[in-house]
Amino acid sequence: MTDQKNNKAMNIIIWIAQVLLAALFIMAGLMKATQPAEALSEALPWVTSTPIVMVRFIGMSEILGAFGLILPSLLRIKPSLTVYAASGLVVVMVLASIFHASRGEFSAIGMNVILGGIAAFIAWGRSKKPSIPAK
User: Fold this and answer.
1) pLDDT, tens digit, 9 for 90 and up, residues 90-132
2) Has residue 95 been placed in a domain?
3) For the chain, how are helix, strand and coil distributed in percent, rounded to 5?
4) For 45-97, how does the pLDDT look when each residue is reduced to its tens digit (9 = 90+)?
5) What domain range is 33 assigned to?
6) Does residue 45 lie in a domain region?
7) What backbone phi and psi angles, to 5 degrees, belong to 128?
8) pTM passes above 0.70
């Protein structure tokens, strides 16, 4: 009985992490994908020295990653894709950390590490048993 309670508690914790991380990436992604470069540069100084196409690509990647965190598990259509989405977001956060380090923006790396850690936790949790069964 204790194992079942532990599995249920872990499932709830992972769902909370998925929803919160997805919300953060949707907000950040929408901002990068839709706002004019001038408005973005006020909040994100690196935008001024990065091609706008790259900024839009990053925004769309974050939005798609957020959907990948939620939809496969929620709809139970290929729920294993959630692991890949979370792993992809870990890669995005590692690359973001490298980018910020190369620009000397070390204060931004902390958030990348936190978000990447949460994404890694989701990937680990959803790859373990009991996983979400497919329809």
Assistant:
1) 999 999 999 999 999 898 899 999 999 999 999 999 998 656 7
2) yes
3) 85, 0, 15
4) 889 989 999 999 999 999 999 999 999 999 999 998 999 999 999 999 999 99
5) 2-127
6) yes
7) -95, 165
8) yes
Count other C-beta atoms under 10 Å from residue 62's C-beta: 25
Looking at the structure of the chain, the number of domains it has is 1
**What token pair was written down for 117?**
């850690």
How big is the chain, counted in residues?
135
- Amino acid 125 reads G
Could you give the CA distance from residue 2 to residue 107 in angstroms, rounded to a whole number?
A: 42
Per-residue confidence (pLDDT) for residue 130, from 0 to 100: 57
- Contact by Cβ (8 Å): 28, 92: no
Determine, yes or no, domain membership for 134. no
CA–CA separation, 63 and 52 (whole Å): 17
Cβ neighbours, 10 Å, residue 88? 17
What separation in angstroms does the CA of 126 have from each of 16, 58, 68, 70, 133? Answer: 13, 24, 12, 11, 11
How many alpha carbons fall within 13 Å on the CB side of residue 58? 19
Residue 69 belongs to some domain of the structure: yes
Are the beta carbons of 41 and 47 closer than 8 angstroms?
yes
